[in-house]
Amino acid sequence: MSTHFQNERNYREELVDAHYAPPFLKELFGLQDVTRESTSLWAASAQRIYQNLTEIGLHDPQRHPDSRLLMAYCLYWWQSFCKGYAFKVEIFRDLEQSGLRFQPHDLFDPLARRSPHDLRISGFWGDVKTSTYFLLKVSGEIVSGDFFITRVGLSTYSARTLVVFLQNATWDIIDGETLQCLLSDLGNGLPRPARIPYHGGELVVAEYTDWKAKMRNYQGQRGELP
Amino acid sequence: MKTLEQMPLGEYETVIERFIEEAARWDGSLLVETFFDAWAALESRKDQVEVQAEVKGDRLVLAAPPDSSLRVQGNRIWFQDGRQVVIRLVTTPMAATG
Fold first, then answer.
1. Which residue of B has its CA nearest to A75?
2. Could you report the predicted ipTM of this complex, rounded to two decimals?
3. Do residues A61 and A68 touch, judged by C-beta distance below 8 A?
4. For residue B19, which residues of chain A lie inside 8 Å, CB to CB?
């Protein structure tokens, strides 16, 4: 096993992604209420992963307790995948319903799924993230996309809030006015777009609905809307 | 704090069942106690790693037990994070007596 699966990416791609991603994504696109219904879709596929890894002998929790770690890794990875792609589908649907023109990458193509961007809108490359973990790159690099649609938990808001993190230059093209604040004070800054320090530079954070309105306006000015 | 491989089988199966039931609704946040418990558990880990050494002529030959997390060959040790340690024998001239 150790010679075949060179690293954790091999594990998840061969044991999980290759078998479970295509049917999961197909069913995901067929759901009416992605947020609610995707949870049972996840649970059903997670049960199948548990049974399958046990059947092929990679998971034997009684005789080989270490194999529980492989199961935990696969299930953790799979829930991140399911949650991440359910969120992407939600956002893509919402952008469509909002009348914005954009090009999502092909979620059924494994190579496209590994690309650094999820969608392109009016020439800007963007990504859809389930949380702000993307700001903390282990490598120390700064984020390279033009914008990131994500959710943040703010003490001043009762539920997680949809926001968009944008590079300064991207924001400057679609609008200009911002409020200077720290990421930790974002709850007090929003709904006004805020400019936060980031790795020696800055990022702009705007509410998702505000960003959509500005993008619609921008696309209208450029004659991109029908 | 018990890790998965240390739990009795029944407890492990319950943890997995609960994870499958609840993970999709989990928003990624952790209880403060859970976060600091996990941090403390990681910090307190002091794994002892055993390497055996033998001097064969002018060479040092290292060996690690089969279940070791280290890869060892000759006088070189590879850690899991890719770093290597090379141990060289140094011969000290015998002190003159008389």
1. B20
2. 0.71
3. yes
4. 75, 79
